[in-house]
Write a structure and sequence with these properties.
- The protein has 139 residues and is α+β, with helices and mostly antiparallel strands.
- It has 2 domains: 2-82 and 125-133, SH3 type barrels, CATH 2.30.30.100; 86-121, no CATH class.
- 15% of the residues lie in helices and 41% in strands.
- The strands form 2 sheets. It has a 6-stranded antiparallel beta sheet. It has a two-stranded antiparallel sheet with strand order 6-7.
Amino acid sequence: MLRCFMMLLGAAVAFAADDPWAKVKELKSGTEIRIYKRGATAPLLGKFDEVREDSLAVVLKNEQVSIDKDLIDRLDARPSQTGRRTAPETKTKTEYPDAKPPAGMNHGAPVPGTSSSTTVSFGSKPDFETIYRRQPQKK
């Protein structure tokens, strides 16, 4: 029984390796994608919605569009973010005055001064990765 299961599992893995559309099926809804359509001069940028056996549903500028699989030359997806994109950093600096004030100036006890500054740096998005490329037509 276990041997039969292992053979079936191996066949499924081999099929997935032969099916370039398998990675598209694994995308999560909302993933940022770039679609290169056959004959188009510029790629389409949008968010992945769902996949079917012969087409792809994608949101382009707040409109859901279905694109046939045979019209897609290449499909790139941006990997999901890991970690934080913003990195706040606060620096505090304390300056201690001289113990003895200059001659002729008696303004009381010297008091340390404190200054703080906060910066926020924004990280960039990860690059797109090609997850599907149309296979050449077999003759």
